[in-house]
Amino acid sequence: MEYKKMLKQVAKKYNTTPEEVEEEMKKAITASGFDMSPQLFISLCTAKVKKTIYRK
Question: How far is it, in rounded angstroms, from Cα 56 to Cα 46?
């Protein structure tokens, strides 16, 4: 899924703005000890899931 589209969907679900969603994601990623953008974090997670799924 396209990053901006995902932000819009989450924002709509929680009655907020895509900018607020992205800011909260940044805070959560930083709090977990990573220093990367939400978009990069999601890409890395997606790649890991795809790699795990296709191994089976």
Answer: 16
